[in-house]
Amino acid sequence: MDPILDGLNHAQREAVTSSGSILQVLAPPGSGKTKTLTARVAYLLSHHGYQPQDVICCTFTIKASREMRERLANLIGEKLESRLILGTFHSICRRYLVKYGYLIGLRKGFGIADSDDTRAIIKRTIKRLNSSIEVKAAQGRISRHKAHGLSPDAVSQRAKAEELELVDIYRDYQSALAASNLLDYDDLLLRCSDLLRDHPQCVSNVQAVLVDEFQDTNIIQYELMNLFASKSRRITIVGDPDQSIYGFRSAEIKNLKRMQGRYSNTTVVLLEDNYRSAGSILNAAQEVIEQDEARPAKALQATHTFGTLPVLRRLPTPNAEAQWMVLEIKRCAAMTGGLLRMSDFAVLLRSASLSTQIETAFGRAGIPYKMVGGRKFFDRTEVKIILNYMRVANHTGHSDALLNIVNVPPRRIGDETIRQLTSGAEQAKLPLWDFIKDVIQGRRSTEKKLQKAAEQGLCNLVKLIEASRQKLQECEDASAPRVLIEFITERLSFQEYLIRTYPLDEDTRWANVKELMHQATEVAAFEEEEVDKEMDLPEIEGVEQQQTHAGEEALTRFLANVALATEITKEEDNKEGTPTEKVTISTIHAAKGLEWPVVFVPAVYNGSIPHSRAEVIEEERRLLYVAMTRAQALLYLSVPIRQPRLGEGEDGATTLTPFLPPKLTKTRFRQTGPSLHEKVVYAIADILRRPRPSLDDMYKGLEFLPSTLDDRWTPEGEEDRSKFESTSASHDVSDEPNPKRRRSDMNQGPKTTTYMSSTGYTMNDSTGFTLPPTATTGFTSARDHIAAYPQLTSESAAESASSTHADATRAIEPKPSSGAGRKDGLTQASISNFFGGPGTQKREPVVPNRPQPPPRRYELPTSQNQRLPAKTNVPPTLSSHRVQPRPLIPTGPTLEPANTSGYTWLATPSGPPASRPRITVTQERGVGNASTNGTAGAEVKPEASRGFQSATTFHTTTMSMVQQGPRRTLGIRRSMNGWQDRMKRESGGG
DNA sequence: TTGGTATTGATTTTT
DNA sequence: TCAATACCAA
User: Fold this and answer.
1) Which spans does this entry mark as compositional bias, Basic and acidic residues (predicted)?
2) Residue nearest B13 (alpha carbon to C1')
3) Binding residues of A for ATP
């Protein structure tokens, strides 16, 4: 058997081995899309004998291209992998333009205009033309025209009057780019397609073209694909119309049809088995996407068990929402006995700006996280300054970069001076830089005489840039970027400048500059090995490739990578005790193609999703679909019922997204987090294909939980006043009125114990939630609890109904006897399992009067506390607020009849219905403790203890995160052109 | 004319 | 939280 085909199902195999030269693979979420595509690449190399440098593989995002490289390296080896022409459309185009751009009159050493440059240029011309068009709107419309391949002239021909205003801006923008020798993102594609259309010999070597996420291609990218394949006409595309979420970037789902029309011999293969998600999640997601009636029906078959229903949680405010996520993450982590680690959780957001509250809540609670998407490393002001110096040094014609740094650090060059200079340069038809040089050397003068101070400042600037250029000329190797950064920071006394300007966080800002240096160093090290030659395009007879000064070339490439990558991977500082395990917070867009065991999608209200400014609401629905289908085992959607800030309703009330109509939420969702008893946990383990945790391990975490249920808020999304009376007085905990006061509350307790602080829960209790100062209302009986959640019973019934057929597919065990007493019986069984089932040495429900350290939530009277191990001593403030052990009575949602794979419970002795097992969690802890010394679950132990102990280190991480402020964590992306290959070599090889 | 301080305003998604 | 604007003192 061909190892390439190992582990592929029938449809995947068919796709991989298809002899059709034009192949479309339609691959819904979790169907092994990337696996199939990489296998196809490997198959083409090994069975068709193509050389890797003759295969082009286009992805859409950098992350996707990195993943593809990694997978291919495993499949075909690094040697071959590194020679593939693989990358984002933009980066591949850049490579072609660098080598062959001269054929279409592109000037050497062109730079890439990032969105900041674009915005600045457009802003300037709008001002000059006195246009009333908004900058952002103009930017978007110009980009759209370009994505359709329309030049300013082309637009003006078919334009209406109002469009003509834009055409002027468009023209002006284009000439500004040309003047600075810049290409914007659209130009990269556009000019490359010009190149290949006029000079197809540049790609005459290409044997096969593969495109990932084809539904996200725009017209130009589609044309590029065809041009790449103009010789061989062998194309494989993988895509899913349901996951098209880049329409705002002119992506056209129509390209699928267009391609079929263009190539009559198109073969279409459908993948429909989902290997990622629980059946319950798929059902819910499928129902969301099927609301789109224009969409062709497409099957999506679950291969996993039904699992537990997804959650749609209502909460009072965005802040409560964030705190709830903290609670649920901790609850999941603790109650699954080390099965789930921090890196198994993801929070997916419609907008990156939603992250702030979540980040602060996580920071306070000691949840380590990393933010993906949102603000980019290379966009930080301090980094940007250095980069702009480098850009000017690289190419003095880059007027926008020059304008950005002309008075940074301050050189007494103010607005007026700049106005004189720019208008003078324009009149003289000179680049700004040349004009400035002429002025200070006395060859020219401005309309109005410049101030002495300003002139002196300009003089210093020119000297610095000239010196930098000199330095660059002297440096004829790949170290140029690093050399230049060092030189510039030194000459600017940049660190002192940062201290002066940003006294609050000058250290992190300086650290960012250091990080930039580090990146440059890495590039240099990589290129010195000359491995990068393999990244070059293959030589083609008869077409000359353009050569450049090595140092300049290295700098240009560095800057291009920066513009195209905009994020970098920070190497994990694996210092002792630093957890590398982090919760991912990401935009939904940036999460495409990825998966996590547990996914949270907060803010599912109208205006957020669909976004209030969204143009196509179908796309927003697909966005929700994409977000939901990232989840493997647990999916949480949530919505704050009030949005105090920008809410459109009078009191800031929100409305649930129309994508989740009542008939859907009633049948496919539960209202609160699932009870995480044994069977649920086992189902999670099975879906993740991880070993089931032992019951011991599952007990271990419980004592640190304030509750084993998701019950701090009512299912309707109010704070539960019966338990948290004092907090309801000020229900916008959200705005965190006076943290100091609360902190002092906490500090009434003994300052104590590494243990306390190490749980990471002290922090949370003290700041995240408002604890009632007195214990009067702390106790809630389970009966009260049930009374408060009447709907749960029916909900669980719905779940069992909807899950029956899914059961059948996977039932390993005989079904529980169904019938009248079924619900109770099941519940009892699962609960008693949970607290003392056959997984442990104890078969009986635990002896009630055996003294055991209780979990905090169900605190025993203080007399019992004396028997706690010294280190687990609980401060009086915390122990006092709940005085009685809370009996746990099975409630509706603990029913999980879907998970018949948990076979242990059938053997469990369940009490007679009359005497329900009123087991306190105290006992449950006892079981856990007792069996810690036993043998049960020994093999799972390392995992479990890691998950648990890390709480200690979470805390420390948090502290550093809090000090640094939010979003200091560097993103996980890495620019391409081999940076990641180097990483791989280092980590993988060593 | 500059540069500091205060106020206000604003925040889709990515290459 | 950050950035752009507005105003005032030098």
Assistant:
1) 709-724, 981-990
2) A589
3) 27-34
Domain positions in chain A:
3-105+186-271, 111-180, 378-521+530-542+553-564, 739-749+766-942
Model pLDDT, residue A632? 97
Strand C nucleotides, any atom under 7 Å from protein beta carbons: they are 1-3
Task: Say yes or no: Cβ of A739 under 7 A from any atom of strand C.
Answer: no
| Contact (Cβ atoms closer than 8 angstroms) between residue A409 and residue A416 | no
Per residue in A467-479, pLDDT (tens digit) is: 999 999 999 888 9
CA of A971 to C1' of C4 (A): 27
Q: Given CATH 3.90.1530, say whether it is the number of domain A111-180.
A: no
Of A974, A973, A990, A981, nearest to A79 by C-alpha is A981
* Residue closest to sugar C1' of B12 by CA: A351
Burial of A647 (0-12, 13-18, 19+ CB in 10 A): middle
Q: Is A870:A279 a contact under the CB 8 Å cutoff?
A: no
Q: What are phi and psi of A920, to 5 degrees?
A: -90, 155
CA of A418 to C1' of C7 (A): 21
Secondary structure (DSSP) of A729-754: HT--GGG---HHHHHHHHHTS-S--H
Residues A882 and A791 sit within 8 Å (Cβ to Cβ): no
CA end-to-end span of chain A, whole Å? 31
Q: Which residues touch strand B (CB under 7 A)?
A: A 60-63, 88-91, 115, 140, 185-186, 245-246, 248-249, 350-353, 373-374, 407, 410-417, 451, 454, 564, 566, 587, 589-590, 611, 613-615, 645-646
pLDDT at A569: 56
Q: Nearest residue to B4 (CA, C1')?
A: A501
User: Contact, A313 vs A672, CB < 8 A?
Assistant: yes
Q: Coil, strand, or helix at residue A321?
A: helix
Distance A970 CA to B3 C1' (A): 33
CA of A607 to C1' of C4 (A): 26
Judged by C1' against the alpha carbon of A356, the nearest nucleotide is C1
Would you state the pLDDT for residue A830?
A: 37
Fold of A378-521+530-542+553-564: PCRA; domain 4 (1.10.486)
Residue A762 has pLDDT above 70, yes or no: no
pLDDT tens digit string along A627-671?
A: 999 999 999 999 998 876 654 445 678 899 999 999 999 999 999
Query: Counting Cβ atoms within 10 Å, is residue A276 exposed (0-12), middle (13-18) or buried (19+)?
Result: buried
Say which residue the tokens 């457009």 belong to. Answer: A122
Q: Which nucleotides in chain B lie closer than 7 A to a protein CB?
A: 1-4, 11-15
- Superfamily for domain range A3-105+186-271: P-loop containing nucleotide triphosphate hydrolases (3.40.50.300)
Distance, CA of A718 to C1' of B6, in Å: 39
Q: Which nucleotide is nearest to A565 (CA to C1')?
A: B15
- Classify burial at A521, counting beta carbons within 10 Å of its beta carbon; exposed 0-12, middle 13-18, buried 19 or more: middle
Which of A888, A716, A682, A701 shows the shortest CA–CA distance to A790? A716
Backbone angles phi, psi at A852, to 5 degrees: -145, 150
DSSP string for residues in A817-858: PPSTTHHHHHHHHHHHHHHH-TTSS--SPPPTTS--PPPGGG
**Average of per-residue pLDDT across A117-138:** 85
d(CA A257, CA A261): 6
Nucleotide nearest to A502 (CA to C1'): C2
Measure A350 CA to B12 C1' (Å): 7
Q: How far is it, in rounded angstroms, from Cα A966 to Cα A918?
A: 44
3-class DSSP state of A774 = coil
Helices (H) and strands (E) in chain A, counts: 41, 18
A 504-523, residues with C-beta < 7 Å of strand C: 505
Percent of chain A scoring above 70 in pLDDT: 69
